[in-house]
Amino acid sequence: MTDPTKSGGASHLDLAEREHTFLDANELVLNMGPQHPSTHGVLRVILKLDGEKVRGTECVIGYLHRGVEKIAENRTYTMFNPYVDRMDYVAAVSNGLGYCEAVEKLLNIEAPPRANYIRVILTELNRLASHMLWLGTHALDIGAITPLFYTFRDREEILKIYEKYCGARLTTHAFRIGGCLYETYDGFEADVKKFVSFVTPKIDEYEELLTTNRIWVERTRGVGVLSGPDCIDLGVTGPVLRASGVKWDLRKAKPYAAYSQFQFEIPTGQNGDTYDRYLVRVAEMRQSLRIVSQAVEGIPEGPIMAKVPKVLKPPVGEIYHSIEAPKGELGYFIVSDGSTQPYRIRVRPPSFVNLQALDKMVRGQLVADVVAVIGTLDIVLGEVDR
Amino acid sequence: MPDETKGNTSPNPDQPASQPSSSSPSSAKPPVTVPPKPTAPPPPPKPPGPVPMPWESDMVAGLKQRFGSGIREASTYLGQSYMVVERAVVYDVLQELHDEQEFNYLVDCTATHYPQRAQPFEVIWILYSFNRNERIRVKTLLAEGEAAPSAVPLWSTANWLEREVYDMFGIRFDGHPDLRRILLPEDWKGFPLRKDHSIIQQDQEWVQINLGIESGQ
Amino acid sequence: MLDYVTGYLSSNVTPGQAGNWVWALIYILLIFLGISLAVMGMVWLERKILAHMQIRLGPMRVGPHGLLQPIADSLKLLLKEDIIPENADKVVFWLAPLMVVIAAFTVFIVIPFGPTHAVTDMNIGILFMLGVSSLGVLGIIMAGWASNSHYPLMGSLRSSAQMVSYEIAMGLAVVSAVLMTSFNAGGSGTLSMIGIVQAQAAQHTWFAFKFFPLGLVALFVFAVAMVAETNRAPFDLPEAESELVAGFHTEYSGFRWSLFFLAEYTAMLAVSSIAVTLWLGGWMRPFPSWHGPAITIPNFWEHAAPLGAVDFAFSLVPAVCFFVLAAFAFIGTLRMPKHPLMKIQKGGLGALALVLAGIGLVLLIPPVRDRIQDIFWFVAKVAVFMYLYIWYRGTFPRYRFDQLMKLGWKVMLPMGLGVLIATAVVGVLV
Predict the structure, then answer these.
(1) How far apart are CA A169 and CA A186, in angstroms?
(2) Per-residue model confidence as pLDDT tens digits over C199-240
């Protein structure tokens, strides 16, 4: 067996240092990933184990690094737009919204109200899709194989709406800087309404499968606990933060798009464990449906594109804009030098920052919990590595 | 890949025209000069584009009082406030913001490279306060080889974020517990987000070593 | 010689007891083939049933409704490259799957499919079964150790701890069933598998319903322990694919891997058979002592003896089952898409319908009917347990290791012990 500390040269896990106990046993270094069924992509976690107990972890990331930020410096603002979809590819629409809004802010323009409504509808549907994918895979990690198929069945309906709207299902490139390129297709409202009434009982169905399932509760309650202050200290955002009892959501704190016009709650948990995070995400799915149905009711008429010059040359300056992506705060920090290409784009990826909390969450727990915690953090390696 | 050829030349670091002069305080000029012109016109900005306005608040006043010229600039651009702080005092400023001013959430820590300047690196901390619902940016300027203070003692988040900055820009952080590359492999050469690290050059080097041809373009 | 062979047919004991080696060998071969076929069928059924639980279709391409999928699977596994890791302990690595398979199959020597349908009947049958079936864990530990890799090692460690823990609860539940055998008229208990079923016949009740609810509780303890014993969901920690990749058989591929697979399903069949024998009346049909009014069914080739109407009705069930299956296959044939490419599939399914109907017809012949009935009811009861296995897998998340241990030692063990004591007390009092 090769010792990852030697081969990778990347480990700070000191094997020499260990407690001397009565039955002195060697620690086991387990290399989890990058090819592992439940590391959600190419995450590699080096676990230092005492039997089944985790004594320390180290994440090795970057297998999916594509240098998105460097690419951005070599593209025009418009050309870079589709690239952001490839970061968090299960929530491509949210990525696009964040980027478009950031550039709009830099250009000091605003998307027209109708465009904002379309954006809200599609982004919230995307949040649902992302949470559904998360729920299915998270349950699969914990050993419940059936919910995966239920959630994927329902996610399919969302993807169908995307496909009808812009022709793409996953990496949609749905929005443009200044608004939306496409007007909604005929029957869009009807489709969305149908979807909302279709999926509401389905969420109850997922809950029936899991919420009161004894094994599910035992496997998730008290696992990977993060207190509110810990979350803030670690910069963890999104549902993970809310499950720890911090009622903070960028859609309320710093409203963007048309979010200030909708009624919705911010679901929170108390214990900050895996079970609460599950409950919070499921509650969030319901809130998203609420927003979607309000938005589709009140969608105004009007243009969908603001007056945007053909060639985008934002004035010299910098801007940071962030949105509440399904996984947390997704921010774009853009520096413009007045040319057609961004001087620097920095993406603040929620998955990357949230993944940092893994070590704190799994220390002292069992191997099986590592899998549960990776699942509950809801990371997408495309976004972690960029 | 013609895009890259084209793209790489455009934001040419040698072109003095493309300086982020208004936002980044000291732009191309040696950073010794104190905040330049944009703060001058207080009347409403001209229609063509917004300009940074001076950022006035009790907090800034307090910081200025404590650190004096350590706070080089405090401005608001497009409703977003930022301050530029001397490297020597930046840790104290961050600490004050963290401890006294309730900026308990480090949103992001990143950097920008301006190769034409004397202090080519700008390290940016984006802070947020849950209680005040306020987001600010703190920046400091670094010369080549100069290290920034690590914010890990204040915010645990900074750990990976600073590792990424080190990985991409080669900026060292004093006091960081484990400053290693994070996204790129350990044996990577160079720091890719520096402006002088061109994609083409990287490509050609790889092609020459691995394929034995002159250029893959 | 011929007398030696045919002489057994008129005897009323198992070939082992009759000392007839030829028939014992034939039985062994039949059981081996039967189990292997059952495993293949089980795999197909598991994939299909699980798929339908998960709103999928499951295998549909190889043969009508994927009926030939198990054959395709086994062919694939046989043809696959067999990899032995370089640093593996080759001999142990090679022995481990054999060990597991042998342990799983050996158990079937004493399983009574009918009063005479067993290879042999031992007076310590149940003890033998428990003993041999737990040898399987040795193979798993060998596999985990020999692979020289972390995941298999952890898998095998988990497996051994799990098996040892649940063996105890399982044993206690078994003992309470064995205890029940002594509460019949004669007052002497037995460990013989056939004896246990006969004791249930003598006491006119399945042990699951004896001393209600004690029998049921013991069955429950056994049913939980047997899932843990066979490493199936929700106790599939040794091979938990989301944690340990594939557990103890991570490094195995091709045929060796398929041996593990075969052993797992064989072990499932074996423990289900124990449960059926001990608590659900083994080969006995439901309501075995209810015969109904005597009627005479005329037939053409032998003297028609009167027999109970209920007996007769139940004796038709196997044939009816095959007719129903044949009807399903026939309807499937009719519903096949009208496409030239589907002709072969259609023909295949039609042929299957005919074969099934043919089997049904054969099962109507009185002598066959009488000999096969036992086996049918036994298999039907085992099938219920197999369905439960699939159902668990589709429903439950996986336990964590400490929770599994807690359940084994803190819930199942006291429960088994309590049932044992209660059975003894009630048995003495009643």
Answers:
(1) 18
(2) 888 887 788 777 778 888 888 999 998 888 888 878 887 777
Nearest by CB to A348, which of B8, B48, B108? B108
Cα A308–chain centre separation: 30
Chain segment A283-320, per-residue pLDDT in tens? 999 999 999 988 888 888 888 888 888 888 888 888 89
Nearest CA in chain A to C147: A1
Quick check: bond before C213 cis, omega within 30? yes
Name the B residues in 19-78 with CB < 8 Å from any A CB: 19-24, 48-50, 52, 77-78
Q: Is B179 helix (H, G, I), strand (E, B) or coil?
A: coil
Distance (Å, rounded) from C-alpha C277 to C-alpha C265? 18
DSSP label at residue C409: I
3-state secondary structure (DSSP) of residue B143: coil
ipTM greater than cut 0.85: no
Residue A16 clears pLDDT 60, i.e. is over it: no
Domain tally, chain C: 2
Using the Cβ of B184 and the Cβ atoms of chain A, whether some distance falls under 8 Å is answered with yes
**B78–A108 CB contact, under 8 Å:** yes
pTM of the complete model: 0.83
Whether chain B has a CB inside 8 Å of the CB on A248: the answer is yes
Domain encompassing residue C385: 2-7+15-284+372-429
Domain definitions of chain B by residue range:
53-183, 185-217
Question: Inter-chain contact A315–B80, Cβ cutoff 8 Å?
Answer: no
Which CATH superfamily does the domain covering B53-183 fall into?
NADH:ubiquinone oxidoreductase Nqo5 subunit (3.30.460.80)
B95 in reach of chain A (CB within 8 A): no
Work out the pLDDT band at B27, boundaries 50, 70, 90: very low
User: Rg (Cα) of chain C, in Å, rounded?
Assistant: 23
Tens-digit pLDDT profile for residues B55-101: 878 887 888 888 777 788 888 888 888 888 888 888 888 888 888 88
Q: Per-residue pLDDT for C304 more than 70?
A: no
Around Cβ A138, how many Cβ atoms within 10 Å?
29
Q: Is the peptide bond before B41 cis (omega within 30 degrees of 0)?
A: no
Q: Which residue of C has its CA nearest to A216?
A: C397
Q: Is C289's pLDDT higher than 80?
A: no
Average pLDDT, chain C: 83
Does A164 contact B at CB distance below 8 Å? no
| pLDDT tens digits along B99-154 | 888 888 888 898 998 888 888 888 999 988 888 888 888 889 888 888 888 888 88
Q: Is the pLDDT of residue B35 over 70?
A: no
Same domain, C218 and C121: yes
Rounded to whole angstroms, the Cα distance separating A85 from A100 reads: 11
Q: Do C138 and C66 share a structural domain?
A: yes
Name which of A213, A218, A368 is nearest C243 (Cβ-Cβ).
Answer: A368
Residue A280 has pLDDT above 80, yes or no: yes
Residues in chain B: 217
Q: Inform me whether the pLDDT recorded for A103 exceeds 80.
A: yes
Alpha-carbon gap, residue C239 to C256, rounded angstroms = 16
* Number of A–B residue contacts, CB under 8 Å: 144
DSSP secondary structure code for residue C411 in this structure: I
- Evaluate whether residue C113 is within a structural domain: yes
| Nearest Cα residue to A150 out of A113, A115, A199 | A199
CA C312 to chain centre: 27
Maximum distance among all Cα pairs of chain B, rounded to whole angstroms: 63
- Chain C: residues touching A (Cβ < 8 Å): 50, 53-56, 87, 148-151, 154, 158, 233-234, 236-237, 240-245, 393-403
Q: Supply the pLDDT for residue B18.
A: 39
Cβ burial C282-304 (10 Å sphere, 16+ → b, else e) = bbbbeebeeeeeeeeeeeeeeee
The CA distance from A144 to C233, in Å, is 9
